[in-house]
What does this fold into?
Amino acid sequence: MTLLKPTRRDLLKMAAAAPAFALPAAAARAELGAPQGGNPSHFSFSVGDARLTVVSDGYFRLPTDGLGINADPAEVQAFLERHFLSPEMGYSHTNHLYVEIGDARVLVDVGSGSRFMADTAGRLMGNLERAGIDPSGITHVVITHAHPDHIWGIIDDFEEPILPDAEHLMGEAEHAFWMQDGLVNQVEPDMQQFVVGAVNSIETEGVEWTLVQDGHEVVPGLTMFDTPGHTPGHMSLRVDSGDRSLIALGDSMSHAYTNFAHPDWYNGFDADGEQTVATRKRLLDMAAEDRIAVLGYHFPFPGVGHVQREGDAYRFIPALWQF
It folds into this structure.
């Protein structure tokens, strides 16, 4: 059986149906007050000789009842309250990594585009240009996984690929999962739009995929490696230059507080909770032991920092903003 092939209008309808909530000002807590005129949407730094820039695609809100679903809901809510976060609605940034290393210009994930959470996300292309980055110069696009906020932005409003000249890379296992026959009829109804959107994105005309396995070297200094659980074939990207390293986590870790303090908790949007936890613990242990910097896609912008061990748990230490 073949997968459904909806029109762009169908996809826009489904994206519009995604929850968009307003958070009462009294419950905002750690969000402080909204800026007047906006804030910079990029953050630049270096890892050895590699030049890195985190560029935002925007943000979105989702109910917090998807967090820590294997824990007592009251405990999860209390944890969020202690950390000045709303116990009802989450606030997720979307932090994309752009790497200049040698002659390569590498972008990790392509964001939501105009098809998902369009009111507050889908700002990547404009923000790249505001950061002084010419999208046409991007040589490689690394896709960590095929969820809407990571791949649906692969096309523009005219259904043309946004980066037609770049090499597009995705994990072989991730590609195989989303492209299996009849998947749309095997998942829960609320996941069907994710399947349809992933298939449409992967099948974008004009994009040819390089399907990779664990340890694939994108270019010297950039390595894709398996971090499954959130999706079956999720991959992260490691940057190594000189004696410095950084891991772009994608969604292998998606919360800068719960994932560290309670690494055993998994979320409703993790495809395999137990595998997600196993992957997370491996990453936390490696980053803490080897003092490797990390970038969390949904961590508070810019999402860069270090992992500190605290007994059986961990803590995220944000990097210093340098001028």
Observations:
- The first helix runs from residue 8 to 16.
